Every structure is written in C-alpha cells, then in structure tokens.
Amino acid sequence: MIKKVKKNIRIIKALAKLRFQNLMMFRLSFFGPFFVDASLFLIQIAVFEIIYQNISNIGGWEKAEMIIYIGTFSLINALNMVICFFGILKIPEKIKTGEMDLYLTQPVSPLLRFTFEQINPGSIPLIILSCCIITYGMRMIEHIITIKQVFAYMFWISIMFLLYYELEILFRSIAFYTTSILGLEQLEMVSIELCMQIPGTVFYGIFKVLFYGILPYGIIATFPVQSLINEMSPYQFIYGLIVVLVFTLITYTIWKRGIRHYDSIN
C-alpha cells in the first residue's frame, strides 16, 4: 500500500512537471489565464454586490455569511480548475475517439492520469482572490470565530472538494454508455451556476431533495460555511459524510464498470 502511494506521488510529480514545461513553451498560455480568471472573479463580485446590496438576508444568512459562501464555492471551484478539471473534461472525447486505449495500456491508473495531466496554474489567482473574499467576510461577522471552527471549515472544504470532483467524474463516466453527454454537461453547468449564487439554506421540498441528495451541489459550500459560523448540527455532519461516502461508491462503481464496458473503436 505504501509503495503504491509513493509510486502515485512520483507519477503526479512527473505529470505536473511535464505540464508546466509544456505551458512555459508558450508563455501567453501560462500567464494569460491569470488575468482572465482574475477579471472574471472581480466581475462576479461586482455582480454579487449589485444583486444583494438591498437585501438584508438570504435563507437566514446576512451579507457576511453570503460573502463567505460566494468565496467558499469559488474556492472549491478554483481548486478543481487548477488540479483536475481540464483533464477530467477530456474523458468523453477520449472515449469517443478511442484514445482511451492509450490510457488503459499504460501501467498508470487512467483516472489518476486524467486527474493530474492537465493541471492549470492559470486559475491560481481565483484561489488567492477566493481566500481574500472569505477573509473579508469573516472579518464582517460580529461574533468571534474560533480556531476549532476554522479547522472544521478546512475539513469540510476538503470533503466537499472531493464530492465536487466525484460528481465531475460521475457525469463524464456516462460517456462509456452513450454517444453524447451534452445534456448532462448542461445540467451540471446549470446546477453549479445556481448553487454558486444561493446557499442550500434557501432550498425546501423537492428542491432540497434534488440539491441535497440527487445532485448535492447545494451542500458543497453550505456545509463548510455552516461549520465556520457554528450552525452545523450533528445530523448535518453525519449526513454530509454519508453523502460523500455514497457518491464515492457510486462514482467508483460506474467508472469501473465503464472501463469494463469500454470497447475501442480502433
């Protein structure tokens, strides 16, 4: 087990090094995304101010909590963009063209390679700016935030990043069974955009079932913020862990069966 972990770490380092070397061959490709993503983030904050400047609270959260929420979702999304998004995004294309063969014949986990072969440093500014807006929101909160709450927040950031990553793989694993997942990708995009703008505390009834269970984007930033402002109940803590565990098992099962189901077109 330890040998396998060490091997995977060496592979990740090699993939990252190769990726940076390729990016630095075209300096604009390396530095351009820094300015593009930073500009998009600032526009998002400006839109947030315009929409919420005359609203006292949303789903029971005041402006400080909402600022932290926006920053939290943006942080998780930015981490995903830096680490794995552009690699996972190519899975349907690799399946459709038969290039998946190259991944299956190599002595490296295909999913590990997809995850780390397209690391994108151009989204690093989003991580920095997200942390800045989260810090700003924390300073606006009237009560004191303890170290324990900060560590709980960091724990849930990690857990929700894993869930975000699993959902991303899950959607694209369907490409093993169908010729197009365009509709699923549109559903994913709409769900993310919606849940990036409003917290899970707003959802009730069928919408809560949808965004807390079926497509749990509603908890991705909500639970970390609730842990930070000390609003998370023991029930929510357990529920969040169960959701991540269930989607880990579902994603693993569908991915593995998809690999077995895969039939090269070459």
UniProtKB/TrEMBL annotation:
Please identify the protein, giving its name as recorded: ABC transporter permease
Which InterPro entries does this entry report, sorted A to Z?
Answer: ABC-2_transporter-like
Q: Which UniProt keywords apply?
A: Membrane, Transmembrane, Transmembrane helix
Superkingdom to which the source organism belongs: Bacteria
- Name the PANTHER family for this protein: INTEGRAL MEMBRANE TRANSPORT PROTEIN, SLR0610 PROTEIN-RELATED
Q: What are the transmembrane regions?
A: 28-47, 67-89, 119-138, 150-167, 202-225, 237-255
Tell me what organism the protein belongs to: Blautia pseudococcoides
Record's Pfam families?
A: ABC2_membrane_6
